[in-house]
Design goal:
Distance between the termini: 60 Å
Helix content: 55-70%
Strand order of the largest sheet: 4-3-5-6-7
Number of helices: 15
CATH architecture of the largest domain: Orthogonal Bundle
CATH class of the largest domain: Mainly Alpha
CATH superfamily of the largest domain: Hypothetical protein af1432
Strand content: 5-15%
Largest sheet: 5 strands, parallel
CATH topology of the largest domain: Hypothetical protein af1432
Oligomer: single chain
Number of domains: 2
Structural class: alpha/beta
Length: 362
């Protein structure tokens, strides 16, 4: 009988172990069971225990005598129970004794059945074979359940990757619409994740939360899909009226994300909505759309806000050329693009040299 868990085969064990110090008794039991199983023998409990513990997966059942020198049957059974092996390999006690105390202790230790000597072949084979088949069926069912669970996990992973791919495709498409290369969203993702992983701003966050925030960051500008091309790609300075329209990409982005039911099931949804709406808020309250101030702005929205400004200044856009790195840092430090949390700036400048590597091929 063979089942597989993934690519790992499950093969039902075929070996029955007889543990008895009497060679005649071992011969009788061997003769009874050799037609059904491969049979191994052990002359005392210690040898039997060594065989079982060395390869428990090889044995389909153990026939264990009670009265043996060196280590008797109950002592052997105690060791097997302590190792949790009585749940993996069915153990049968073979004994000429019928004391109630012996029976009670044997069953308390997990023995499957107590078989009296002298054994009756058709009775002992029926009792042993039935239990062996029961254990095999249970393990086979377990392997099938594990196989199904593994397949469900693979399906879930594929769905997660598909969802992430759709999110990345949507975000990149918007960047292409605004005549960007699409690398902007990748850099925002990388900057956000790096800040969370290498500064105090990631403290207290799980690895999963960090990845969800980084994924959410690439959706910060999804609301630009609602902005007319004439404004989105205008090469010159926007008029006050045009700028008011441009500012609506924050609220439109949060609204758009809220209308995608499938996204609500993604752990990044909460972060994405917050970031899309608030990545233009500023520490002094001078941002938009809600005029949030200080710690009213979430940590992740603050990080993406700074990452967005850093990337915009460092790269060529339809309305400007890229600024030199030194000028970019001075503009951020001096508040030319709005006021940022001083603690965030400290964290940013502590890792900026590493972040600058993202632009070496630009």
């Amino acid at each position: 009988m063979e089942q597989t868990i993934g690519n790992v085969p499950y093969v039902a064990p075929q070996t029955l172990l007889i543990v008895d110090d009497d060679a005649i008794n071992r011969g009788i039991l061997d003769n009874i069971f050799s037609a059904y199983y491969k049979v191994e023998e052990a002359e005392d409990g210690r040898v039997g225990l060594e065989k079982i513990t060395a390869a428990p997966e090889n044995y389909c059942a153990v026939l264990l005598d009670v009265m043996m020198p060196e280590m008797d049957g109950l002592e052997t059974l105690q060791h097997l129970k302590g190792l949790g092996l009585v749940d993996e390999v069915p153990v049968f006690l073979i004994t000429a004794e019928s004391r109630d105390a012996l029976m009670r202790e044997a069953y308390n230790l997990g023995v499957m059945d107590v078989i009296s000597k002298p054994v009756v072949p058709y009775i002992v084979t029926r009792r042993v074979n039935s239990v062996v088949e029961l254990f095999r069926a249970r393990k086979s069912l377990s392997s099938q359940v594990m196989k199904q669970q593994a397949e469900l996990l693979r399906q879930a992973e594929r769905i997660i990757l598909l969802n992430q791919g759709m999110i990345e495709a949507l975000s990149t498409a918007i960047e292409f619409r605004s005549e960007e290369s699409g690398d902007h969203v990748r850099r925002i993702h990388d900057i956000t994740q790096y800040m969370l992983e290498h500064t105090v701003w990631g403290e207290g966050l799980t690895r999963e939360s960090t990845e969800q925030i980084a994924l959410a960051s690439i959706m910060h500008d999804v609301g630009k899909i609602a902005i007319p091309d004439a404004i989105l790609n205008k090469p010159g300075r926007l008029t006050p009226k045009e700028f008011e329209i441009m500012k609506t990409h924050t609220t439109e982005g949060a609204r758009l994300l809220g209308r995608i039911p499938q996204l609500r099931e993604n752990g990044a949804y909460y972060y994405a909505c917050d970031i899309a709406r608030h990545h233009h808020e500023r520490w002094d309250g001078g941002g938009y759309p809600d005029g949030l101030k200080g710690d009213e702005i979430s940590p992740w929205a603050q990080i993406v806000s700074l990452a967005d400004v850093y990337d915009a200044l460092s790269c060529k856009r339809v309305y400007k050329d890229a600024f030199p790195r030194a000028q970019v840092l001075e503009m951020i430090r001096g508040g030319a693009c709005g006021v940022f949390n001083p603690k965030l700036l400290d964290a940013f400048f502590s890792v900026e040299e590493s972040l600058a590597g993202l632009y070496q091929s630009e």
